[in-house]
Design a protein that fits this description.
It is globular, with a radius of gyration of 18 Å. The chain has a single domain, classed as Rossmann fold (3-Layer(aba) Sandwich). It starts with 6 loop residues before the first strand and ends with a strand. The protein has a 7-stranded mixed beta sheet. With 211 residues, it is α/β, with parallel strands linked by helices. It is built from 8 helices and 7 strands, in the order ββααββαβααααβαβ. The chain is 35% helix and 21% strand. Helix 4 packs antiparallel against helix 5. It holds the Pfam family Methyltransf_23. InterPro entries: SAM-dependent_MTases_sf (IPR029063). This is Methyltransferase type 11 domain-containing protein.
Length: 211
């Protein structure tokens, strides 16, 4: 991939891949498109990823030069990583940013989910909490199709975050200016090209920068 300065990079982009951004996703469906049989399977069974989505795993490292990015964005990615992997992802994000570069992210808000659980009345508050937090399973997938969905999908959450815990990890990675963010409130207008208001609803957004 040709390297440049002032890149606008998004990882874990899913199906949202605006032009002008370098868009990566670690879904195996994206990787399968590279091989003949896999490409056939991806076209028939997989999500319709835009052509400008590149396969890339931020934990293992992306094909991006250190200090090359003006802005980096990820939406509902970190909760799908084990904590140690999330720490590696944040360290790599920091490396890719140029000094003064901005990182924005949004994740489910564990504190809000826990508060709603504790305030719930009758019904099944525990089940509602588990469903909303995407923790556990109501039933285990079976058969070949169930295996493929479990292997190729990343729907379950592996670590949940609140503002205090995620802020601390960002500080450890070297970020400064850490603050709560809401959709569309960045001084860098181009974040509006990747932010989806629905994915920020009742969630935890943060913005920070590399010094």
């Amino acid at each position: 991939m040709k390297q440049a300065n002032d890149l606008h990079l998004q990882y874990g982009c899913g199906l949202s891949a605006p032009e002008g951004w370098v868009n990566f996703d670690a879904s195996p469906w994206v990787a399968l498109r590279r091989i003949p049989l896999g490409g056939w399977l991806a076209r028939r069974r997989g999500p319709a990823f835009p052509k400008n989505v590149r396969y890339g795993d931020v934990v293992r490292g992306l094909p991006v030069a250190d200090g090359s990015c003006r802005a980096i964005y990820c939406s509902h990615v970190l909760e799908h990583l084990a904590m140690a992997d999330a720490q590696e992802a944040l360290a790599n994000t920091f490396r890719y940013l140029q000094p003064g570069g901005v990182f924005r992210l949004v994740v489910p808000d564990l504190q809000r989910l826990a508060r709603d659980y504790l305030a719930a009345g009758d019904g099944d508050p525990a089940g509602t909490f588990m469903d909303r937090a995407a923790l556990g399973m109501r039933s285990r997938p079976r058969g070949l199709s169930g295996f493929l969905r479990a292997w190729l999908g990343h729907s379950r959450h592996r670590w949940m975050w609140d503002f205090a815990s995620l802020s601390e990890e960002l500080r450890r990675a070297g970020f400064e200016g850490i603050r709560r963010a809401s959709c569309g409130d960045s001084a860098l207008a181009r974040f509006g090209e990747v932010e989806d208001p629905d994915r920020w609803e009742e969630c935890l957004g943060l913005e920070c920068r590399r010094p």
